[in-house]
Amino acid sequence: MKYPYSPGINHIEFWVKDLETSMLFYGELFPMIGWYALNETSFSCGQHEIYFKQMPVEFCDSLGVRHICFHAISREVVDQVGEWLRKQNAAIIRGPQEMPHYSASYYTVDFRDPNGFVLEVAYTPEIKL
């Protein structure tokens, strides 16, 4: 079947406990990895959009996606994010580091945002997107 558009993700919505804290965090992180603000609570990379919405705590404690991996355009971007995370005293899970069991050039940093969401920024030149 032929579609008038490409299939894919329309948007991702993050339910957060504290919108202001989340916007401060993502307002610095996203420009580093090539995303731009659409308005005060949403960002885009030109293909996908991420929205943030403050929700009561009982909703934020629900199970969800294990993590989201953002594509970095270079190893330097991954290093820049890692350095920024250290300055933010963010919870870094691993990296920046190479992950040769994924691919020979996979380079990543995994971390938690202010809400505890697990995120990854990875440079993966051998992986077809």
Topology:
Elements: E1 11-16, H1 19-32, E2 36-39, E3 42-44, E4 49-54, H2 57-60, E5 68-71, H3 75-87, E6 91-98, E7 107-112, E8 118-123
Parallel strand pairs: 1-4, 5-8
Antiparallel strand pairs: 2-3, 3-4, 6-7, 7-8
Structure notes:
By secondary structure, the chain is α/β, with parallel strands linked by helices. It contains three helices and eight strands. It has a four-stranded mixed sheet. A four-stranded mixed sheet has the order 5-8-7-6. The longest helix is centred in the N-terminal third of the chain and has 14 residues, at 19-32. It is globular and about 40 Å long. The two termini are 22 Å apart. The mean pLDDT is 87.
Percent of residues in beta strands? Answer: 25-35%
- In helices, the fraction of residues equals 10-25%
The whole-angstrom Rg is 15 Å
- Strand pairing plus helix content: what structural class? alpha/beta
Distance between the termini: 22 Å
Biggest β-sheet: strands ordered side by side in the sheet: 1-4-3-2
Number of helices: 3
Task: List the helices and strands in order.
Answer: EHEEEHEHEEE
**How much is the average pLDDT?**
87
Low-confidence stretches: none
- Mass-distribution shape: globular
Taking the sheet with the most strands, its summary is: 4 strands, mixed
Tell how many strands the DSSP assignment holds: 8
